[in-house]
Specification:
The complex is a heterodimer of chains A (674) and B (161). Chain A is mainly β. Chain A has 7 helices and 37 strands. Chain A has a single domain, classed as TonB-dependent receptor, beta-barrel domain (Maltoporin, Chain A, Beta Barrel), CATH 2.40.170.20. In chain A, the strands form 5 sheets. Chain A has a 22-stranded antiparallel barrel. In chain A, strands 1-8-9-4-5 form a 5-stranded mixed sheet. Chain A has a two-stranded antiparallel ribbon with strand order 2-3. In chain A, strand 33 and strand 34 form a beta hairpin. Chain B starts with 15 loop residues before the first helix and ends with a strand. Classes of the chains: A mainly beta (674), B alpha/beta (161). At the A-B interface, helix 2, helix 3 and helix 4 of A face helix 1, helix 2, helix 3, strand 8 and helix 5 of B.
Chain lengths: 674, 161
């Protein structure tokens, strides 16, 4: 895999001697104290100035600033949403922007919750998709899901969103079973000046962002931002108002220090605080629905150091701290995470290896608030270690690339997990390329699956007791992929992928023999691994610049899934994931530049029915933008023009959230930049 | 381990930003403009890209055919037609269409790293492929603006149809 976040594709150029690994660690230590040369000195400026055109063309880039490889070079189903595509999508939140990714399943659960996954197994906390923001994981080990309503950023400062469908575990670790999303923000230097954006919509009566980016000296830039969102309640299908509003404020900063061209040090952090509501199905039949308010806050601090070493290899050290706290009616949840990673890439002949390791510490406190819901223990420290190595072997003059490697991880629940991959890319000619891959990935148990102890009153006198346990194993997947890309000319390209994945040890909830307790019956349910399954599909996307002023993008995806219970399994809902993904999906986007600095954009999304009871829906978004000058941008638009509102997802039985419907939404937005 | 690969020890490594700035600097010498109206040779670029800072240092004190080079950062639209070279970095893609519109009638060389720049009416795209930076020149768009590209630059570039 080769897209940007893989720092393994780094750019390495001229080297003389790469005698490897241990030595490089020493080099690192030396590099940190030794005086260094770079563009900071006039000498190298003169050398740069003196390069002839021929030499310029022949010079290889020492450090790819963006790490953004051309699409043609990725041996994976990769897709990138650019800053400009985000701006012209008309979307105001990161999860909504993800609708643009071919093959990604994005469904609104209610006004502030989303079910998002790649290649199946969708849910409000879909557990097989790894999500990161600037390399910091936002996949929560509590329930193996992503709290999408906590993930936000001023969209103007999001440089790109990189998505890999399919396994990415060898580089990114456990839980990257069906896909990896990395949200990459701009460097401080790329977001200079003041930005003020504010808007209103039917869905969000008020949203606004304030950002300022400046420089302390030519090598040290910073930005600070604040953002506020208020999202209104949606409605249920019957027309009643749901209780699912959201009020969140956030603030953050990023600073990038580039003492010379070969080194960058980034320090960034964010903090958010707010409340959200959801509507739960009532435990008591007399009260069918009850609002549940969560007070949320969280923050993170991340430090990243990248340096090109003297031998042409590249080293990255990253460390972060992340805190989240959620106070709910049913549970108070606090978590602290500390992470430290080292990655080193170098070149050895035709080989471009990347290797590294990391350590993550998770500490949580789950405070019981209801007699019916508890975790044993309620406080847990988890340690996660990993080492990985991957090599890209370039053959036949770079036209064939074999990428192979593996990651070995150790977690406290299941011990060692090995996640290998082998990928082959063949650039047949400048217009065609083919790739294929086989990978193994695992989804490690969450805190819920390991330690949950919950009671549900089924009927009077019958109580279910759902328990996690130490016997719960990791879910595993073995995936086979085949891809083809066609670039007949610069104006048109087509990218298509076929996949088949084999899953084992899928999670089930197994009823145990009932126990008579007092006057009633207690039925224990044990969370177990008694199902397996297959998924297959075809994802294809095309991009066509029809003229100087008009661009079209389209995609189609086909998806199939089958889940099989073990013969001994008694879980009647084991196959539920079959009903949570649609078979067909497509979208079409049009970007048109009109005279007078006007932009007219249209986006059409179609999602086939879900077998669990969600009808198929079309969604049409239109946007009219106007940028009379460099400083002012006005946009007006409508989302979901074709219907008043529609349902997109029904959470499975184990999630008591009542889903509400996505409504037609008009918006106005003004952005000022100075 | 073995010496599997060797390169001149003196080989200097440059990053993408530096190489893009170096190309921009070189374009001043390998493009011919119609007779100039102003004395200074004017580069225009935007503050949101690190290329601008490197370019500023490269052109400091330099001259093109006895014309002192100046750099204008974040030009307002009315200033754009005075530029001999405008660099529109990908970070400014949102105003690309209007920048091209403003200078359509003027002999200004447009350079960018936006992926489909030449299809949108731009002249020179700086592409990063396989760790090398190369100019892609759209000759029709260049000659429409009455600019001439030296054969030396053409030889080091890719030509877009």
């Amino acid at each position: 895999m080769q897209l940007g976040f893989s720092s393994h594709l780094l750019a390495m150029a001229n080297f003389a001697n790469t005698s490897g690994d241990i030595r490089s660690i020493w080099l690192l230590c030396i590099a940190m104290i030794a005086p260094r040369s770079g563009l900071a000195d006039d000498d190298s400026l003169e050398r740069l100035k003196a390069l002839s055109l021929q030499e310029l063309t022949a010079t290889t880039v020492s450090l790819a600033v963006k790490n953004q490889q051309s699409l043609q070079e990725a041996a994976a189903a990769a897709y990138v949403i650019s800053n400009e595509e985000i701006r012209r999508s008309g979307m105001q939140s990161i999860p909504e922007v993800l609708r643009k990714v071919p093959g990604l399943e994005v469904a609104r659960v209610d006004a502030n919750q989303w079910a998002i996954t790649s290649r199946g197994f969708n849910g409000a906390f879909a557990n097989k998709l790894l999500v990161m923001v600037d390399g910091r994981t936002v996949y929560d080990p509590f329930n193996s899901g992503v709290y999408w309503n906590e993930q936000d950023y001023p969209l103007e400062d999001v440089d790109r969103i990189e998505v890999i469908r399919g396994p990415g575990a060898t580089l990114w670790g456990s839980n990257a079973v069906n896909g990896v999303i990395n949200i990459v923000t701009r460097t401080a230097q790329e977001s200079r000046g003041a930005l003020l954006s504010a808007g209103t919509s039917h869905e969000e009566p008020g949203f606004g962002t304030l950002r300022y980016g400046g420089q302390i000296n030519p090598n040290l830039h910073y930005r600070v931002y604040g953002k506020y969102n208020h999202r209104d309640d949606f409605h249920f299908s019957g027309g009643n108002k749901a209780a699912d509003d959201l009020d969140v404020g956030r603030a953050g900063f990023r600073s990038d220090w580039t003492p010379d061209a070969r080194e960058t040090l980034t320090l960034q952090g964010d903090y958010f605080n707010g409340t959200m509501q959801q509507t739960l199905t009532g435990a008591d039949p007399a009260v069918p629905a009850m609002p549940d308010r969560t007070q949320k806050q969280g923050g993170n601090l991340l430090l990243r150091w990248q340096r090109n070493l003297a031998d042409g290899s590249r080293l990255q050290i990253r460390s972060y701290f992340d805190h989240a706290s959620r106070q709910q009616m049913r549970l108070d949840h606090r978590r602290n995470t500390f992470d430290f990673d080292v990655q080193h890439s170098f070149r050895w002949g035709n080989h471009y290896p990347t290797w590294g390791g990391g350590y993550r510490f998770n500490s949580d406190l789950l405070t019981q608030k209801l007699a019916l819901l508890s975790f044993e223990p309620n406080r847990r420290d988890l340690h996660l270690f990993n080492i990985f190595a991957q090599d890209e072997w370039r053959l036949f003059g770079d036209d064939v690339r074999l990428i192979y490697g593996g990651k070995l991880e150790h977690n406290d629940f299941t011990g060692f997990e090995l996640q290998p991959t082998a990928r082959l890319l063949w650039n047949v000619d400048p217009q065609h390329s083919l790739w294929t891959a086989v990978s193994r990935a695992v989804r490690v148990p969450s805190r819920v699956e390991h330690d949950l102890n919950a009671l549900y009153n089924f009927t009077p006198g019958v109580t279910a007791n759902i328990r996690g346990g130490d016997s719960f194993k990791s879910e595993t997947a073995l995936s086979y992929e085949l891809g083809y890309r066609f670039f007949p000319n610069r104006s048109f390209n087509l990218d298509t992928a076929l996949f088949y994945s084999d899953y084992a040890h899928l999670s089930t909830t197994e009823p145990q023999p009932p126990i008579a307790v007092g006057g009633g019956v207690l039925v224990p349910f044990q969370i177990a691994n008694m199902a397996e399954g297959e998924t297959y599909g075809w994802e294809t996307s095309l991009n066509w610049r029809a003229s100087e002023i008009w661009r079209l993008q389209g995609s189609y995806s086909l998806f199939g899934i089958a889940i099989h219970r073990d013969p001994q399994s008694l879980d009647s809902s084991a196959e539920i994931a079959e009903g949570n993904s649609s078979r067909h999906r497509f979208n079409l986007s049009s970007y048109l530049n009109l005279p007078y600095q006007l932009e007219l954009d249209g986006h059409w999304y179609y999602t086939d029915r879900l077998a669990n009871g969600v009808p198929a829906y079309h969604r049409l978004d239109l946007r009219l933008g106007w940028q009379p000058n460099l400083h002012l941008e006005l946009a007006a638009g409508v989302q979901n023009l074709l219907d008043n509102r529609h349902l997109e997802f029904i959470p499975p039985l184990d999630n008591p959230v009542l889903s509400s419907e996505f409504e037609r939404n008009y918006y106005l937005k003004a952005t000022l930049r100075f | 381990m073995v010496y599997a690969f060797s390169a001149p020890v003196s080989a200097q490594q440059f990053n993408e930003t530096e190489l893009k700035a170096a190309y921009l600097y070189n374009f001043a010498y390998f493009i011919t403009w119609p007779e100039p109206a102003a004395r200074d040779f004017l580069f225009c670029s935007y503050a949101n890209t690190p290329v601008t800072g490197i370019l500023a240092r490269l052109i400091d004190g330099e001259k093109v055919h006895d014309r002192p080079i100046r750099l204008l950062i974040d030009p307002v639209p009315e200033q754009l037609h005075e530029c001999q070279i405008v660099f529109v970095p990908v970070q400014q893609e949102r105003v690309l269409a209007s920048i091209l519109e403003y200078i359509r009638a003027f002999p200004t060389l447009t350079v960018s790293d936006v992926p489909d720049f030449e299809q949108r009416g731009g002249m020179v795209r700086l592409t990063t492929e396989d760790r090398r930076i190369q100019p892609v020149i759209h000759l029709q768009n260049v000659t429409r603006a009455k600019l001439a590209v030296s054969s030396k630059l053409l030889r080091s570039s890719r030509i877009a149809e």
